[in-house]
Amino acid sequence: MRCADGRPGRRGLRRLLLLGPLLVLLLLGGTGPASAHAALRGSDPDDGAVLKSAPRRLTLTFTESVALLDDSFRVLDPEGRRLRTGEPGHGPDGADTAQVTLPAGLAQGTYTVAWRVVSADSHPVSGAFTFSVGKATVTTAAAVVTGPTEDPVTKALHTIARYLAYLSVALLIGTAAFVAICRPPHVPVHDRLLRTSWWTLLAATLVLLVLRAPYETGEGPLGAFDADAAGRTLTGRPGIVLLTRLALLLAVGAYLLRVSRRRRRYGWTGAALAAGLAATWAAGEHASAGLQVPVAMTSSALHLLATAVWLGGLAALLGALYRAALSAEAVRRFSRVAFASVTVLVVTGVYQSWRGLGGWDALTDTTYGRLLAIKLMAVVVLLAAAAVSRRWTALQTAPAVAEPSGDGPADRAEAPAPAAAAVRTKVAAAVGGPPAGAPPSPPQPTGSHPSAAEEPDPAHRRALRRSVLTEVAVGAAVLAVTTLLTSTLPGRAEAEAATAAPAVVGASVTDVPFDVGTPGGRGTAQITIDPARVGDNSIEAVVYGPDGGISAVPELRITFTHPGQDIGPLDAGLTDKGGYWGNSFLNLPVAGTWEMRVTVRTSDVDQITETRTVTVH
Questions:
Q1: Between 203 and 475, whose confidence is greater?
Q2: What is the per-residue pLDDT across 255-307, written as a single tens digit (0 to 9) for each?
Q3: Which of the ends of the chain has fewer CB neighbours closer than 10 A, N or C?
Q4: Residue 236 CB neighbour total at 10 angstroms
Q5: Element (H, E) at 389
Q6: Cα atoms found within 13 Å of the Cα of residue 15, Cβ hemisphere only
């Protein structure tokens, strides 16, 4: 429904307020699990290592400090049964390590380790690896840990709540800043924006606090009712940050109520509360871990405040354009504030991009870099929309008497009386920088009417509103990408983990399925080369039948060829060791990728040859 002058009515504003949730469903609905800030630097034993004797403990080393859960380690034996381990704790090297004691006398075979910790920036991170005692064997544990590490319902609810928290804090701070700095005429839409954003932020924060425990453990939402997990949440740093945000929100609510009742202007108390809210985001995201933490947290808080003042101010500006007149002075003030906000965003954004990426290659080679590139492109579109708004501002320079919105009796009652309101010039706001166009004409005397030549062009006014609405929509999309960025492993941390992790030099285990086409003539040959290095190696091959049990075959032959060096074929010289085939003196003279040809004969006439590649270090 539109008003008599062609302006969208209350329904149009409600559609605007629903824009954020719709965008989050479109942009975040198809995303997969995201990585956190901490990355695994290395493990002891190494992934894939074959040990002569059983280890007494497992140690993981990360790129930053981590918090441990009650179930941080799950160790499965070769049969897929979970072992009883000691309590997880930090190693002697500090909080960036996680360690657990293993039971004594581990049997021969391959063990699977699934781990999950919480990084210093509050996001959980998990993974799995294997090690073998004596020799590698087929393990049934792989099926236990190959599923998703996150409950999809918990992950989706947590992501939506985080996005709504970003959106609502931007509206809350931006609307209050717009009213305090630009001093527009009082309109109910600003009060509704403040109330709606406050309640939304309160609800989103409560949801984040309730979901904190199942989000850390990867359980479903019902995991929030576990008493032990709830206690851990309330005493951990992420929970304390959320509790602090709730306390600040209560103070903000009381402040807004007092200012509204007494019709006072927002002052330094409001600015301090806004800074405190922004600090809770800095303390719970990437800025709280890594290098230059004090500088990073300050930059993150300023970045969020500038985003809120600009994008939240745009939403408040759009409400004013729909509902009331704006004075030329209000326009000039918002233009200056918007320009200052963009400047702060550029400076802090460049620093945070450098800190998160670490190098130009990460911009295209990492998920974090690609998301950052999408965000930068969205910001460019946002600035282009701001330029269009300035263009329409330049075209609409004629003054007019301020009028009420005309939505109904309630709005007419709230409109300022002519004697008290004086007369304001109605011009559009330049949202991205200093206002363009000619200076406004002097106001008309109270009670006079504008002539036809002084009436603003309705087409220009509608075009301006559409361009500002585009800015608000793109701004909501930018916040959605920001939400994804805060839960994605930064490129610097990914590169650090890749370079710091030692090269895994251990046994090479290759499974070679085969099928000779006769009943019972299929199975798997598992070939283990230890240590898969240049020089002498031992090789063992076990043949498993279709039922998974060890199968005896009349002949097993393996040859190796290095195409790049024109070496081979080299016969592995396997002999039947009674249950497996082996040779302790396989010499592979050069490093690189070798072609391994495996020939399995299941009867006097049935045999098959399969080819696989193996890497020799």
A1: 203
A2: 999 888 877 778 889 999 999 999 999 887 767 776 787 888 898 899 899 98
A3: N
A4: 17
A5: helix 367-395
A6: 9
**Tokens 């009943």, located at residue:** 519
Please state the pTM of the whole predicted model.
0.59
Q: Using omega within 30 degrees of 0 as the cis cutoff, is the peptide bond preceding 450 cis?
A: no
Cβ(38)–Cβ(493) under 8 Å? Answer: yes
SS (H, E, C) 101-154: ECCCCCCCEEEEEEEEEEECCCCEEEEEEEEEECCCCCCCCHHHHCCCCCCHHH
The tokens for 141 are 């544990």
Question: Token pair for residue 485?
Answer: 């960025």
The position carrying tokens 């709830």 is: 230
Q: Which residues pair with 436 in a beta bridge?
A: none
**pLDDT at 464 (0 to 100):** 59
Q: Cβ distance 528 to 577 under 8 Å?
A: no
Give the DSSP letter of residue 416: P
Summarize pLDDT for 367-376 with one digit per residue, the tens: 777 777 887 7
Of the candidates 488, 613, 490, 496, which has an alpha carbon nearest to the alpha carbon of residue 563? 613
Beta bridge partners, 126, equal: 116
Residue 299, burial from CB neighbour count under 10 angstroms (0-12, 13-18, 19+): buried
Is residue 281 within 8 A of residue 121, CB to CB? The reply is no
**Alpha carbon separation from 170 to 161, 201, 278, 382 (Å, rounded):** 14, 10, 10, 16
